């Protein structure tokens, strides 16, 4: 008889972890520019946990992190893509101009100070 290995509930994604050599700069960027709320910040350990909607973003200080990868991007749902893009441009972050599709989905792309790919989007208002 085969053992049933299915789970009763699917696992929940608690957080995404980013390792960085520029911990202070990244914490400030996600907090001040994207507006994420810092839940935990342990300076001596180089650890920050930020609230990002229903999940969290953990920033971990490391001496060597390697290259950033385009295989992974962080997609953030925002209320107003243009408003967030204005904040990004004000601090010198590269921003693709906001675009929208036929259904009204608006999106733009940028990178954080470490070069991690960030996608910003908002659903159409009805």
What distinguishing features does this structure have?
alpha/beta; 2,3-Dihydroxybiphenyl 1,2-Dioxygenase, domain 1; 2 domains; four-stranded mixed β-sheet
Provide a descriptive summary of the structure in words:
The protein is of the alpha/beta class. The chain folds into 2 domains: 51 residues, 2,3-Dihydroxybiphenyl 1,2-Dioxygenase, domain 1, CATH 3.10.180; 54 residues, 2,3-Dihydroxybiphenyl 1,2-Dioxygenase, domain 1 (Roll). 17% of the residues lie in helices and 35% in strands. It contains 2 helices and 8 strands, in the order βαββββαβββ. The termini are far apart. The mean pLDDT is 89. The strands form 2 sheets. The protein has a 4-stranded mixed sheet with strand order 1-4-3-2, with helices on one face.
Q: What is the 3D shape?
A: globular
Helix fraction by DSSP (H/I, runs of at least 4): 10-25%
Number of strands: 8
Q: State the helix count.
A: 2
The CATH superfamily name of the largest domain is 2,3-Dihydroxybiphenyl 1,2-Dioxygenase, domain 1
**Structural class from helices and strands?**
alpha/beta
CATH topology of the largest domain: 2,3-Dihydroxybiphenyl 1,2-Dioxygenase, domain 1
CATH class of the largest domain: Alpha Beta
Q: Report Rg.
A: 17 Å
CATH architecture of the largest domain: Roll
In whole angstroms, the N-to-C terminal distance is 53 Å
Low-confidence stretches: none
The biggest sheet, with number of strands, parallel, antiparallel or mixed sense and barrel status, is: 4 strands, mixed
Strand content: 25-35%
| Order of neighbouring strands in the sheet with most strands | 1-4-3-2
> What average pLDDT do the residues reach?
89
Number of individual domains: 2
Elements, N to C (H/E): EHEEEEHEEE
């Amino acid at each position: 008889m085969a053992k049933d290995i299915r789970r009763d509930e699917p696992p929940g994604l608690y957080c995404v972890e980013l390792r960085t050599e520029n911990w202070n700069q990244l914490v400030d960027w996600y907090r001040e520019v994207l507006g994420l709320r810092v839940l935990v910040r342990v300076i001596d350990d180089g650890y920050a946990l930020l609230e990002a909607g229903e999940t969290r973003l953990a920033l971990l200080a490391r001496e060597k992190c390697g290259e950033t990868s385009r295989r992974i991007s962080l997609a953030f749902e925002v209320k107003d893509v243009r408003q967030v893009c204005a904040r990004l441009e004000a601090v010198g972050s590269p921003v693709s101009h906001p675009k929208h599709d036929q259904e009204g989905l608006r999106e733009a792309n940028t990178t954080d100070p470490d070069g991690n790919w960030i996608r910003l989007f908002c659903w159409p208002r009805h």
